Amino acid sequence: MKAPHAIPSLFGLLLAAGFTAPACASPDATLLAARDAYRANDMTKLADLGASLPSDYALKDYPEFWLTLKALDRDDDAQVQRFLARVQEGLLPERIRNEWVKKLGSRESWSAFAAEWKKLPAEGRDEESGCYGQLMQLRQGQAPADLDRFLEGKPAPEGCNRLIAAAAGKGLLKEDWLWLRTRLLLAGNYVTQARQTAAAGQLPLDNAALNKPAAANLATPGGQEAALFDIVRKAKNDLNASAAQLLKTQEQLSPERSRFGWGQLALLSARKLQSEQALQWFDRADPKQLTSEQWDWWARSALRLEQWAQLDKIIRDMPADIAGKPVWTYWRARTLQQQGKNAEARALFSKASGGHSYYALLSLEEIGNSLSTPSNKTTPGKDDIARMKADPAVQRSLALLGVAEVYTKPEFRTDAQREWRWAMRGRNDMELLAAAEIARKEGFYDMAIYSAERTREEHDFSLRYLTPYREVTQKYARQLDIDDAWVYGLIRQESRFITMARSGVGASGLMQLMPATAKWAAKKIGLTHFAVNDIDTNVQLGTWYLRYVLDNLSGNEVMATAAYNAGPGRARNWQTGKELDGTIYAETIPFSETRDYVQKVMANAAYYSSTFGHANISLKNRMGVIPARY
């Protein structure tokens, strides 16, 4: 192992000497300064500030944690060991150990890796550290499990690529498997990793032809892969031209390659909602080479056309792990219902009705049970709440939340969320409900929901479906004559009631308004000066825009919800030339984010409606019928 560097040693010396800085700043202000030093890569200042924090300060370990993150970048094992020796329990040592085992694995320091791997709980391992763990086991003679997870067409982290290469080197991966992963990566345009996989399996991929597919020699496997790569790549811009090229070339391709190509074109066609064409092309595809996404879209294409018998067959032909998902359990029940097989349908609806998800609620309604929020909620006692408040991880989380709110530092709120999630691991229902109540009282609404949603037997729906800012939300919902349960369902999905929420694309506030949308809406209602994160203003602008899209989309809440997330133009484009069941419209939305969003918002609205004592409208009726596009 490498010798410790001078700067981490300084930190240790300062701590050992009991150094304290002049008491001229609060611990929170010192912590912020330490974060700035970390970002500025000023390790001396970071160490100095960290050593000056009081020993009883809840967040005292964070500066050394940041210092240790920097040490990891330098492969400074000594600083990592010092930190892990001093801070032995909690989120921070777990995060450091997870990063360290990846470093040790990449350096093939297997003895040290094995020692640290034993100390890292399964919940603390990410995908790459898990791959290094499997690689260690492979070196010990244990074949890795579930390598088929790498046949989804997605790139993998370096540790997983090493695992694949090692498994290939030991003959544990067949040539067909390696070719399939290679062509799936090429289809996703992950060319570098495709080449790595081919090299690991000693496959004759024609790398020169990948750069110039027109020069590919179709008499060789590598040349065929290059030609197929060219067809699939061009399909993203001109699907029909690529289909014509594949039809022309398929006799020169091996059956598995031509059928792979049709599966790729079918997926693109399905996501463009060209369902009839997609079904034709899926019929030409090789089911053994389909990813879970392709199976999903094969089924959605049949669903979009309401071809129930074909949908039933597709779901029955799916691999068991895909067919067993709640979505396809529910839709298989619908296909049986359409075929008059009501007893079989009821059994599947019953199977899918467990829990509180969109599909569970729809299934519950199909077997004749209406949604009702339990009145006899489980309430934790004072002792339960006191015990959770005394938990060090909960205390760290709330301390970080305080820093975030006092100093308007969203990054500390992210740290608070991490600490809270760590603290909720392995908790029983009463502990989770106690934590949720603590979070609610602290205004930590997203984590109150997070904790309340994790209960298994005992529930409190007033915590799962919180109603903060009720007065302002109800005011604007009534002014605009829109369902306040729907508004709450949308806010819960958009921001989890985080007022400082800001998305990666710049949306802000409770209703996650984009700057241009907020400015446009403000102009329409005559607001000349406004702050988009102000709660009242954000709800005013957001509800006005929701009313606007509702009025412009036939008064249909499902389409308006889709429009709020993806834009009115797209919501219209997803209509068909005839009326369509709202559940089918939602299921066949091409954007996975928007599809999930619509389903969750509408399910949220159903729960909020029950909480508010509104008329009992089933989720299926809420989904309604989407009008034909004219």
Largest sheet: spatial strand order: 1-2
- What kind of sheet is the major sheet? 2 strands, antiparallel
Q: Judging from the principal axes of the Cα atoms, what is the shape?
A: globular
Query: Count of helices?
Result: 37
Structural class: mainly alpha
Extended strand count = 2
Rg calc: 28 Å
Question: Which regions contain 5 or more consecutive residues with pLDDT less than 50?
Answer: 1-23
How much of the polypeptide forms β-strand, as a percent range? under 5%
Share of helical residues = 55-70%
Q: What kind of assembly state do the chains in view correspond to?
A: single chain
| pLDDT averaged residue by residue | 93
| Distance between the amino and carboxyl termini | 71 Å
Q: Which features characterize this protein?
A:
disordered N terminus; two-stranded antiparallel ribbon; mainly alpha; 2 strands; about 65% helix; single chain; 37 helices; about 625 residues
Short note summarizing the structure:
The protein is mostly helical and 630 residues long.
What do you see in this structure?
- With 630 residues, the chain is mainly alpha-helical.
- It is built from 37 helices and two strands.
- A two-stranded antiparallel sheet has the order 1-2.
- Helix 4 runs parallel beside helix 6, helix 6 packs antiparallel against helix 7 and helix 18 runs antiparallel to helix 20.
- The termini are far apart.
- The N terminus is likely disordered.
